[in-house]
Design brief:
Helices cover 23% and strands 26% of the residues. It is α+β, with helices and mostly antiparallel strands. The chain folds into 3 domains: 3-67, Uridine Diphospho-n-acetylenolpyruvylglucosamine Reductase, domain 2 (2-Layer Sandwich); 72-184, Uridine Diphospho-n-acetylenolpyruvylglucosamine Reductase, domain 3; 244-337, Uridine Diphospho-n-acetylenolpyruvylglucosamine Reductase, domain 1 (Alpha-Beta Complex). It binds flavin-adenine dinucleotide (FAD).
Length: 344
């Protein structure tokens, strides 16, 4: 297997940060992992998918493993649905297109999310009222410490809002090689979230006859209208998670800001739209050095340079401002990779 030294990671991250990996290898099969671990065991290892949910800051020491493990296997099929095993290096949106086209439903609301299948469980990707956890059966890995295969059931993964065990005690300890999903043959359309219904009506669809393929197309169009293309405006999607506050804090904020956008949670708490808070404080379109807040999408920070210092400074200023104005702590969503010590 070819391991190259000093490879630029600029083409491998959607924020366009131009730093180098000390060592770089393209992983195409799980069977390659044990020999790599034998060679690089003890060095830091960073697994990279599409690089759409991380912020690189400086040269990455040790080995960067670009996951390109492909494959889609039909594990089981019955009258209700199918179980699939998908290689971690498959492109997420191509998987959604393929499954929707086959009549295997459940992923259509997660259309047009960049990145790889293997990264999807890391933050339990979610959009338009659906999360990976709704279809995930299991995650297959190879352990970095023992070079042995492991299986994490959906329950083992402890999936939460943009969260999983792979952001906590299993961070940097597992290389995800495949993901098992359970999809349905009969559609269960989720149209309640965001502007899906309104957009469908605006485009003349009959809501009662809407198909999963049409939902996918609607979502792609909504996302293309709302979100900047990283190829043109380098970004990592939402830079902050939507903060969740208790009912008392929500009521207090609501009195001050009657227009506040928030979503009631099953546990009685409220998820606040972080983009609304940032926009309200006048950040949309503002620039700091070579970073700026996207003029239409306050949650998205755009990098106009080849480093990430300005993006991180801008993020810190926004966090400070939101905390001072509303008493709400904004948590950064992408992972920040800082040289030898990786911090979130
Ligand atoms: C324009 C845009 C829109 C987006 N919209 C959404 C959205 O709607 N919803 C959403 O949830 N996210 C969204 N994202 C964020 C991102 O696309 C997802 O989090 C995606 O799952 C990241 O995949 P990736 O392959 O690019 O991961 P990477 O950025 O390569 O990696 C992310 C993290 O996962 C780890 N990792 C990746 N692959 C593996 C593996 N095989 N084994 C172990 N660790 C691994 C990395 O080390 C890193 O810590 C968006 C991003 C962009 C740029």
């Amino acid at each position: 297997m070819n391991v190259a030294a000093g490879v630029s990671l600029r083409p491998y991250n959607t924020l366009g940060v131009a730093v180098r990996a000390q060592w770089f290898a393209r992983l195409t099969a799980a069977a390659q992992i044990p020999s790599l671990l034998a060679r690089f065991g003890g060095s830091p290892i960073l697994v990279l998918g599409g690089g759409s949910n991380l912020v690189l800051t400086s040269e990455v020491p040790g080995l960067v493993l670009h996951n390109a493990i492909g494959g889609l296997e039909l594990l089981a099929e019955d009258g209700d649905g199918v179980s699939l095993r998908v290689g971690a290096g498959e492109n997420w949106d191509q998987l959604v297109a393929r499954c929707t086209g086959q009549g295997w439903f459940g992923l259509e609301n997660l259309s047009w999310i960049p990145g790889s299948v293997g990264a999807a469980p890391i933050q339990n990707i979610g959009a338009y009222g659906v999360e990976l956890k709704d279809t995930l059966l299991a995650v297959h890995t190879v352990g970095i410490e023992d070079a042995e295969p492991h299986r994490f059931s959906a329950a083992d993964c402890r999936l939460g809002y943009r969260d999983s065990i792979f952001k906590h005690e299993q961070q940097d300890r597992q290389i995800i090689t495949a993901v098992d999903l359970r999809l349905h043959k009969r559609p269960h359309l989720q149209l309640e979230y965001g502007e899906i219904r309104q957009t469908a009506e605006r485009w003349g669809h009959d809501l009662k006859r809407l198909t999963p393929s049409q939902v996918r197309q609607l979502i792609i169009r909504i996302r293309q209208e709302k979100l900047p293309d990283p190829a043109l405006a380098p970004n990592v999607g939402s830079f902050f998670k939507n903060p969740v506050v208790d009912a008392a804090q929500y009521q207090c904020l609501r009195q001050r800001e009657p227009e506040l956008v928030a979503f009631a949670q099953a546990d009685g708490r409220y998820k606040l739209a972080a983009g609304w808070l940032i926009d309200r404080l006048g950040w949309k379109g503002r620039r700091l050095g070579q970073a700026r807040v996207h003029p239409q999408q306050a949650l998205v920070l755009v990098n106009e340079g080849h480093g990430s210092d300005d993006v991180l400074r801008l993020a810190q200023q926004i966090q400070r401002d939101v905390k001072a104005a509303y008493g709400v702590a904004l948590e950064v969503e992408p992972r920040i990779i800082r040289g030898s010590s990786r911090l979130d």
